[in-house]
Amino acid sequence: MRRSRIIIPLVTVACLALPGCGKKESDGSAVPVVRTIKVSRAPFSDNSSYSGVVCGRYESKLSFQVGGRIIKRFVEVGTAVRAGQALMQLDQSDLRDQMEASGSQVEAARADLKLAEDNLRRYKELFDNDAVSKAEFERYQNAHAVAAAKLASLKKNYDVGANQFRYGRLVAPANGVITEIAAEAGQVIAPGQSVMTLVRHGEREVQVSIPENRINEIRSARRITITFWANPDLSVRGRVREISPVSDRATRTYTVRVSLIAPPPAVKLGMTATVSVSFGAARPAVFVPVSAIFQTGDRATVWAVSSERARRRVVTLGPYGDNEVEVRDGLADGDVVVTAGVHKLVDGQRVRVMESSEMFK
């Protein structure tokens, strides 16, 4: 019994001697442990990045000028084609029949015209010898004119039929690459229905979608740099060529075309690109993790730690980055800011800063 009375006071003394053991606020609550960073100003330039796709400046939606059933397709997506190369073909049977029928009508009209010419020549001789009246001669003159006009009209119809027969074979209008095929053999298509997309050889661009609040900034961009997901070491300068005058109804963004300046052959159509836009020269700026920010009403605030006390600090925020945000006003060099547990603190509360050795416990 005497030994047990001696041990109890010794355990109590040992507990009080441990670091942090029994640390309490005046109200009896435990002192919270917080994670912090020390902020400092560093050179920073305003810039934004947007994802896009490499495309050609000149893209053509190809279609047949006549309708019919597709019987052959000669190319695949990604095929490089030359001007005049066959791409697709329709069933031309009906078109051939129409052309041949028009040709037969032309031959018949040519024969009628030959007969009208012979009759006119004979009756001219008779009229010159006063063998027929002038009215009779003029009747044959009129018949000759009608035959000539009929032949000319039928020739035009034949030309139309010949063109339609030729239109049954779709050919490339220029050198380029097939990037899309929208119809297959066996499908019946209407005149003007898009069946392929051809990107012509020449300038390459990156198409990106820009939020409406960034349109004015990208117009005044000082520098545009394009990098590529497939080749991170490749970087190309760019310039804004076109900004859509209207926004997309679904995304409410504006389509922007950025021309690539002297792109190397490694830049291929369809590659994923990142367009980095710089708006100005470097300036000193302070960044903190997004986790350090919390809202108090309509104001952004942080917890600044000084003399082991957390003090609420109202700040003005700038643009957001990757898990960080710029603080344009409210913090100075050397300020210590809480980055974890910000929603559990009260103004003026005593805190214990987590040591580096404690961060990964």
Characterise this structure.
There is one protein chain. With 361 residues, the protein is of the alpha+beta class. Helix content is 25%, strand content 39%. It has four helices and 24 strands. The protein has helices at 2-17, 93-128, 134-167, 215-219, and strands spanning 33-38, 42-44, 47-56, 59-63, 68-73, 80-81, 86-90, 169-171, 176-181, 188-189, 194-200, 204-211, 223-228, 231-243, 253-260, 272-278, 283-289, 294-296, 299-306, 309-320, 324-329, 336-340, 349-350, 352-353. Strands 2, 17, 18, 19, 20, 21 and 23 form a seven-stranded antiparallel β-sheet that branches. Strands 3-12-15-14-13-16 form a six-stranded antiparallel beta barrel. A four-stranded antiparallel β-sheet has the order 4-11-9-6, with no helix packed on it. It is rod-shaped and about 135 Å long. It starts with a helix and ends in an 8-residue tail after the last strand.
